[in-house]
Amino acid sequence: MSTAMDTAFFAAWIEEIARVVAAEKEWLTGLDAAIGDADHGANLDRGFTAVTGALAAKGPDTPGSLLVLVGNTLIRKVGGASGPLYGTAFREAGRTLGDTPEVSVAQLHTALEAGLAGVRKLGSAAEGDKTMVDALAPAVRALEQALRDGKDPAEAIGAASEAARTGAEATIPMQARKGRASYLGPRSVGHQDPGAASTALVVSALHTVATSW
Amino acid sequence: MSTAMDTAFFAAWIEEIARVVAAEKEWLTGLDAAIGDADHGANLDRGFTAVTGALAAKGPDTPGSLLVLVGNTLIRKVGGASGPLYGTAFREAGRTLGDTPEVSVAQLHTALEAGLAGVRKLGSAAEGDKTMVDALAPAVRALEQALRDGKDPAEAIGAASEAARTGAEATIPMQARKGRASYLGPRSVGHQDPGAASTALVVSALHTVATSW
Amino acid sequence: MKKLINDVESVVPDALRGLAAAHPGLRVDVDNQIVFRASGPRPGKVGLVSGGGSGHEPLHAGFVGYGMLDAACAGEIFTSPVPDQMIEATTAVDGGAGVLHIVKNYTGDVLNFRMAAELSGEEGVRVESVLVDDDVAVRDSLYTAGRRGTGATLFVEKIAGALAETGAPLPEVARVAREVNARSRSFGVALSPCTTPAAGRPTFDLSDTEIELGIGIHGEPGRTRSAMRPARELVHLAMDAIHEDLPISGDTLVMVNGMGGTPLIELYIAYAAVVEHLAEKGARAARNLVGNYVTSLDMQGFSITVCRLNEELTRLWDAPVETSALRWGR
Amino acid sequence: MKKLINDVESVVPDALRGLAAAHPGLRVDVDNQIVFRASGPRPGKVGLVSGGGSGHEPLHAGFVGYGMLDAACAGEIFTSPVPDQMIEATTAVDGGAGVLHIVKNYTGDVLNFRMAAELSGEEGVRVESVLVDDDVAVRDSLYTAGRRGTGATLFVEKIAGALAETGAPLPEVARVAREVNARSRSFGVALSPCTTPAAGRPTFDLSDTEIELGIGIHGEPGRTRSAMRPARELVHLAMDAIHEDLPISGDTLVMVNGMGGTPLIELYIAYAAVVEHLAEKGARAARNLVGNYVTSLDMQGFSITVCRLNEELTRLWDAPVETSALRWGR
Ligand SMILES: Nc1ncnc2c1ncn2[C@@H]1O[C@H](COP(=O)(O)OP(=O)(O)O)[C@@H](O)[C@H]1O
Ligand SMILES: Nc1ncnc2c1ncn2[C@@H]1O[C@H](COP(=O)(O)OP(=O)(O)O)[C@@H](O)[C@H]1O
Ligand SMILES: [Mg+2]
Ligand SMILES: [Mg+2]
Ligand SMILES: [Mg+2]
Ligand SMILES: [Mg+2]
């Protein structure tokens, strides 16, 4: 990562998320069909398509205001459980950044931590409940650890991305205690949680952008 | 045929029809599924089950009254197109026999001819319209011819049975002009008419009984 | 075959028992498979009797009640009832003003109702019969069974029923019934076949990209098979078939009818297309029905029925009706 | 996938256009996917707002009108609406007496309605929310999402709506709504999965001899898979699950609800079994509904909802209602 994490960087991240979500739409909806109601991919795709439009229209000038706009747009457009949850995550993350024009990895970590806290508070889900929290929480922890180990930004974000993916896959053997999947009781075991899977995509999109930055 | 066609003979015929119809129920319903509404087998089976019950209860003492009872029971119990049509056929046939205790092949021919006339009048179907008439009409003609040729009763009835079967199969290339099959227009071509098929079974049942009488 | 039934043999009586339990306004003779108004015949009022094979619910039993039918005879699945039922119903609902038989034009229904009308007549009941034959998919001709009776049956029962409540004489009620039929046309499309309990498997095979055009209400295939298309195109195709036979103009009563397995949300999508189409023709839907009314068991698909209204028919359509499947004004 | 639609993307707006065209008594904001009474808010009357994912028709839009809802927000198929819609609906129907949100207990619906309630409050509208969670298939617990809201939603909307028409204050209307929910339980059975337009294929696979027990209304599999059985046994199984959770006794309001693809004749067969079962328990169905009311697209199956009535609830149930899907008394 030669240059800093400025507004353009976060715009690139969101664009990459939109691209990946569109590409993985069927897969995410398929995961949701198994233990939910077969709309997670469609929901996120609708949401990030709207987000791309909103960014183009408003063109926010700080990373913080950009992430807040992303969050508000998701809340306005997605619906379902993931709309308010993802929306809150981005909004809370954006809020902590205030109006800094450039974001350090330490600040990024604080932001993601705030996003996670927002999701936890709204959905009152703990790790192990088989939700997006099971991907986001380990990612935040990994980022923190990487910082302590003095890894460089791209590496640190890579570690977070890896942790999110592992966390998402770790939801497969879990029995859901939150969201629709909880209605299946024991039958929710053996399937990856769609929201955890999409969260892993979101963090890996961050890594993709970071490495080419 | 050692003994004459008395009431017992006609009772045996009806029993044989009931047996064959029950055995061929699925086949008849299948034919009706292709160009009708998938109930012909069920309809006749319901009808002849009721007929067997009625005969056991009433025990009519002449061939004529027996056939009239068969006809009335079919009209009462079958419904659909085949109920009134088969019912009329048996009723008209029975009427012509008056109260003769024993029926000659010539009288049998007159009776079947009257049954055919009843069906023609009620359904206003001509030969070639792809209906039961296409099996019954040739059967009646064949019986008449066999009589003229001086064939013995069993032989004559065999000729009628053969003609009914050929007539039924001849409905396959026909385009229906009467009954549900007519709704299919050209698409009714290539399927045997269920009512013609069941009529062939009815006449062959007569032959089965005649040969073992 | 998976169906919510107890036994293939007892489908109709079991359903009639449920109907009787659900609707105190009805009296159900389960043995004879006849559904009556609990209130019985009204002296001086023409009685309306209809009936047909079962599997088209709510038709006909769902339309027994104030402002519509006095009795409905239920046959086996897709098999017309027998004369005994019709005679029983006819004599029971006669209030001295005679009885109108509303008969869908199928050979079985026609023959059985004809016999019933004759015998009821012999028993001293004045009977008139009205044939419903609104399905334009069947090209009419002297030499065939003629057109099928489908969606217009509901219109005839509602409008003739409303006139009968006013105490109009039998010839008048029969006249308006025939007028409704003359002014109505239908066309149906199947996205899937249906499965009769007796047969146990679908009445025909249809690939995931094919549909049947010009179907009836007995699970029979249509006049032609075609490729699946967007709802708008299917609706236009049906409306054009109707229009070709009876030009659509002015105020109409339109029913978008589900065949039984098609969800309501899809029927509303079809209705939106119907309204577009009418606007193009300079006509409008002054009244409408959207829902499952004349069905074919679990078939997926829809039919459209259009009736050209006049002032009298509109007034009678708006009149109060209180049946289990159609209710307004009381 | 064969569906009577124009485009997977436009299913909901296309259906809303049809709904608007079919029912002059409704005002439909197609862009915001909100269905209102055409008459607008009545000063002094508590406004009732509900909503949820589409695909459950006639729920909710079919219950907008006199004696029931003032507005319904339609989300995408099986996806709860967004706060903006709910805020728009809430402020629009407020007649000064406040607004009741009737929310089915699903994480998405709960979170979005919660945000909407907060923001509407900030805009000066008094809002109370009632959660519907009647599905006994889901074992409740502090650590889970809790029970699903299914059939009882209709009962809550009808009875709270009737009380609101009398001019009762918001806390009273909320109180009766919660009481209906507390007295109601449901259980659902699927004979087939459904197909969402977005997914394009069935939400799960089920052989010709299997069924799903304890399903919700979003095409999700049930709690357990089981062998197909006669209707009577399936009904007893559902009634026992309900009874185990809330003993059934006395006068009840019972709904036998079709999931969308099950024909009416089968629902009546199920209702006959329900009545048998109630009799065994010394209870009775004082009121009933049999039909497709809270559906899951084209799914074949049924759900049973039982509400233990009292004098107040019975009176409010009987009160006049005039919506596109439920109508009596006017
Ligand atoms: N209470 C909760 N806390 C955190 N995440 C949740 C919660 N409930 C659901 N989720 C997440 O939301 C995802 C489902 O999102 P989506 O399918 O878009 O919404 P819906 O379940 O309303 O259809 C789940 O896979 C899960 O990761
Ligand atoms: N007008 C008619 N004249 C003679 N036979 C007819 C006529 N209409 C129908 N049929 C016969 O009835 C048969 C169908 O009987 P069935 O399936 O039991 O009654 P439905 O057609 O009412 O279901 C046809 O195959 C045909 O042979
Ligand atoms: Mg989902
Ligand atoms: Mg048939
Ligand atoms: Mg039939
Ligand atoms: Mg959803």
Task: Kindly summarize this structure in a few lines.
Chain A has 213 residues and is mostly helical. In chain A, 70% of the residues lie in helices and 2% in strands. Chains A and D meet through helix 1, helix 2, helix 3 and helix 4 of A and strand 4 and helix 3 of D.
The ordered string of helix (H) and strand (E) elements of chain A is EHHHHEHHHH
Radius of gyration of chain C: 19 Å
Distance between the termini of chain C: 40 Å
For the residues shown, what is the average pLDDT of chain C? 96
Oligomer: heterotetramer
What attributes characterize this protein structure?
heterotetramer; A: 213 residues; mainly alpha; C: 330 residues; alpha/beta; six-stranded mixed beta sheet; 14 strands; 24% strand; globular; binds adenosine-5'-diphosphate; binds magnesium ion
Written overview of the protein:
The complex is a heterotetramer, with 2 copies of chain A (213 residues) and 2 copies of chain C (330 residues). Chain A is built from 8 helices and 2 strands, in the order E-H-H-H-H-E-H-H-H-H. By secondary structure, chain A is mainly α. In chain A, strands 1-2 form a two-stranded antiparallel sheet. Chain A is globular and about 45 Å long. Chain A starts with a strand and ends with a helix. Chain C has a 6-stranded mixed beta sheet, sandwiched between helices. The N and C termini of chain C lie far apart (40 Å). Chain C is globular and about 55 Å long. The mean pLDDT of chain C is 96. The longest helix of chain C is centred in the C-terminal third of the chain and has 17 residues. Chain C is 32% helix and 24% strand. Classes of the chains: A mainly alpha (213), C alpha/beta (330). Chains in contact: A-D, B-C, C-D. Bound molecules: adenosine-5'-diphosphate (2 copies) and magnesium ion (4 copies).
What is the topological layout?
The complex is a heterotetramer, with 2 copies of chain A (213 residues) and 2 copies of chain C (330 residues).
Chain A: E1 5-6, H1 7-35, H2 40-58, H3 63-77, H4 82-97, E2 102-103, H5 105-123, H6 133-148, H7 153-169, H8 194-211
Antiparallel strand pairs in A: 1-2
Helix pairs in contact in A: 1-2, 1-3, 1-8, 2-3, 3-4, 4-5, 5-6, 6-7, 6-8, 7-8
Chain C: H1 11-22, E1 26-29, E2 34-37, E3 47-54, E4 71-77, H2 83-93, E5 99-104, H3 107-122, E6 127-132, H4 152-165, H5 170-182, E7 184-190, E8 210-213, E9 224-227, H6 231-245, E10 251-258, H7 264-280, E11 284-291, E12 301-308, H8 311-318, E13 321-322, E14 327-328
Parallel strand pairs in C: 3-4, 3-5, 5-6, 10-11
Antiparallel strand pairs in C: 1-2, 2-4, 7-8, 7-12, 8-9, 10-12, 13-14
Helix pairs in contact in C: 2-3, 4-5, 6-7
The complex binds adenosine-5'-diphosphate (2 copies) and magnesium ion (MG) (4 copies).
